[in-house]
Amino acid sequence: MSLLLLVRRHLLASPGPGLALAAVAMLAALVTSTAPRAVAVLHADQLVHETALASAVATDVISVGLAVPGYGEGYVPSQGPTLDASGAPQVRPPSPDLAGYVAGLRDLAASQPEPLAEVLGEPDLVISGTRVGVERVPGNDVASPGIVLRGGPTARDHVDLVTGRWPEATLVPVDRTAMLPGSDGVPDVVPEPLEVAMSTASAAELGWTLGSVHATADQLLPPVELVGLWEPRDADADYWVHAPLAVTPEVVMDANVGKIVTAAVLADPAVVGAWTSAPSTRTWYPVDTRAVTAAEAMPLLAQLRGFTATVWTPVEGDAAVLEPASGLVALLERVLGQRQGVDAVVAVLAVGPLGALVAVLLLAARLLVDRRRDALVLVRARGASGAQVRAVVALEGLVVGLPATAAGLAAGLLVVPAPLTAGQVGVALACGLGPAVAAGAAAGPGGLRARRRDLDGAPGRYRRRRLTAEVAVVGAAAGTTALALARGVLSLPGAGPAVDPLVVAAPLLLSVAAALVALRLVPPVVRVAERVLARRPGLVPFLGAARVRRDAAGGLVPALALVLSVGVAASSLVLAATVRDGVVREAWGSVGADLRVAGPLLDDEAVEALRAVSGVTGVVPVTDLGRHQLRSGSETVTVTVYATDAAALAAVQAGAPGAPARTADLTVPAGGALPAVAAGGLSGAWTTAGGPVTVVEDVDELPGLPPSSAALLVDADLAAGWFAAAGSPRLALLGLDDGATASDRARAEREIAASLPTAVVDDPSAGEEALLASPSASGLATAFAVAVALSAVLSAATVALALVLAGPARRRVLVVLRTLGLPQGAERGIVAWETVPWTVAALLAGAVIGGVVPVLVLAAVDLSPLTGGHEPPPLAFDAGWLALLAAGLLAVVAIGTLVAGAVGRRHDGVHLRTATD
């Protein structure tokens, strides 16, 4: 009972240390419980985001077969369905049981393990024939009309009949060759027209009307009669992605033929199966990943790989089998690659603040024991055991820690309202117990004695143990870093651990090693300063240097916390700049200039129209000269050659990230050889049919040009003697005014669309924004910001706690010196000496960590999925943000110095008697 009373009196008499412990516990619980949930939500959102951006063709599970399902064993792929041998020349074709086959597909999906069964949606299928030419409609501008017969079990559910009726099955000749003219020129069987329904858009394009009959170019196919016109209920539905050419026909303009139009028409499935000589059945499961959690993505990939590697028979005895394939496999691999990069970066960002949190917790526990020292010494003198003394402060830590942890956990649920796992609760509980453990450890015999650290007289054995521990930490840091660098990039999409332990351990050990080195280097440097200052007038500098060496504020713990905090903040800024710079490089590299125009033939008139667009400073057409062979000795390489105005291209790409450096040199012949910039690992001298070629620069890819395994960029004027021209260009790179804003770009794009309606305009800033808007990129940006903010808070807390811990000893010295005539304002100088050397050391060590850790991350983790590229991004530094970080830390120290100096002046009278006793 007396124990509880003592704890209560401590909390009421001096609540500051308890509040400090509570703040640390709450912050630790908030971070450790929220971060895993936030990352899990980020991963789930990224999968949904990637799936939503991809088309249904790219993600759905699809199977294409040459058999029409629903006939059971009565279908032979090379012959079609078995017809009723009734002796009649024409019979009603059997209707395939497509509903039964779809039910078999549904059962097959339900039999799969979770989460695959949940991802596979309602199956569907369409049966299609090959393109068949039909007769032209007089007066219509279509030179080559054609149709594709198509049917499916749910086709009617996706359309609204505008006029007419739905097609019915017509009679089919038992022997289709009877439709051919005999010796008398008359066929033995003349089938009735095949009934079809068509979209209103297709009918308008072909010039068909309701009831019109159109002969086909296939002698074994009867004419088709349009019996119904329909409109799609949802023209953007995924169904039409799997059943193209139906809502709107395909229109191709051919210079030799003219206008070629192909339209899919809907017919009764029985007719499609019976009349089509080479049908194809497209079966698909729509994919829905919205319910897939982060933990289910990897099992889903494994299950999907197994599902797509197996040939399935949905209905026993049916000739149609399922051979599924899905682009979702590649999408999941890409998402898991992004996840690996995000997890590694977040883990690296997390270990530093967590280490700093532990250090701040130890400082707060020492502050608690310092404030309770008199009472605890008195209790100990009256017979209390060491365990009982520890129990007092441990119970106080428990009383403030558990409620603070609950508050941190609740706040985390408000920030990230996702399901709370048992592991997160356990980690939060450990954070709640941390203050009790730290306070109990700080209340040992050494913690209850006020002493000067330089007069401890530590035995040689203690010094040897400390040196051994420090050497071990430095060795471990060097070893883990060497292993991570020697192993190279670890890419395990779909298998293995989410985070490589080496990537987590190496940065933490490097930071601790840097703090230990800083702690060893600061005292000798200060000792030199002390000797220099001893021979100069002025007490404050000498006294400050002496106090740093003899009684440092906090010792190793605050130094470690500062190094970890500054190192994490610097690493965050460097990694954030690296990822963003990589995104910019990839976005710009895919476009190649401020704007890219592709699509139409860019003749002189079109180029002049582009030059007239507001804000355009340069238009550089690029001509594809085709594929050519390069020879060098016995080696022969086939490359794609692009010709352009090299000088104009160099001007448009000047200063752009990733642009070739020697584009302008392509206008100068290289000793009789054609100079070229190459992509694809080409270098040196080569020979073509037109003459020698010298590669003046080899790059990974040619910005703005179509990707190619091997390509050459040459100047159009010089290349005329080497390569024959291959028509007009279809691609142009545009430069805009310096400082063009988003509205300027939008205006230019509108003007281009008005002058060239069929052109496709690409803007690198749009691609950059799209990449940065993804959940992974935006979540990682948030993680960088949180890491920097948390580091700032921990740095401020470290400085404040270190100054408060050193406050009593400092005030005793200052009171005595004030009685001896210490001038006003000297307190600030002494306080500054307590913090500035360690702050400078933390900045230097943190700068080293901020440069080394990103290098380690890039060497061990593939971050290219986060930037949208194929190569890891180069390291990038943002000097402005790094300078702001340094200024922020110095500002924190300056504020702490002012506050501590003011507090010291207020307590002069209070400590005068104590200091002179």
Q: What do you see in this structure?
A:
The chain has about 900 residues and is α+β, with helices and mostly antiparallel strands. The strands form 5 sheets. A 9-stranded mixed beta sheet has the order 21-22-20-23-19-18-24-17-25. Helix 10 (about 330-380) packs across helix 14 and helix 16 crosses helix 21. The model is unreliable at about 490-495 and about 905-915 (pLDDT under 50). InterPro entries: ABC3_permease_C (IPR003838), Macrolide_Exporter_MacB (IPR050250).
Give a brief description.
It contains 27 helices and 25 strands.
Tally of DSSP helical segments: 27
SSE-based structural type:
alpha+beta
Helical percent range? 40-55%
User: Low-confidence spans: pLDDT under 50, at least 5 residues?
Assistant: 492-497, 907-917
Spatially, the strands of the biggest sheet line up as: 21-22-20-23-19-18-24-17-25
Task: Label this structure with key terms.
917 residues, alpha+beta, 8-stranded mixed sheet, 15% strand, cell membrane, ABC transport system permease protein, membrane
Itemize the secondary structure elements and their pairings:
Elements: H1 2-13, H2 15-53, H3 56-59, E1 61-65, E2 75-76, E3 80-81, E4 90-91, H4 98-110, H5 116-119, E5 124-128, E6 132-133, E7 144-151, E8 159-164, E9 172-173, E10 194-199, H6 200-206, E11 213-214, E12 224-232, H7 238-242, E13 250-254, E14 258-266, H8 269-275, E15 280-285, H9 297-308, E16 325-326, H10 328-381, H11 386-415, H12 422-442, H13 460-487, H14 501-534, H15 539-550, H16 556-591, E17 595-598, H17 604-611, E18 616-632, E19 635-644, H18 646-652, E20 674-679, E21 684-688, E22 691-699, E23 711-715, H19 716-719, E24 731-736, H20 742-755, E25 760-762, H21 764-772, H22 775-805, H23 807-819, H24 826-860, H25 864-867, H26 879-906, H27 908-916
Parallel strand pairs: 7-14, 10-12, 19-23, 20-22
Antiparallel strand pairs: 1-15, 1-16, 2-3, 4-9, 5-7, 5-15, 6-7, 8-12, 11-12, 13-14, 17-24, 17-25, 18-19, 18-24, 20-23, 21-22
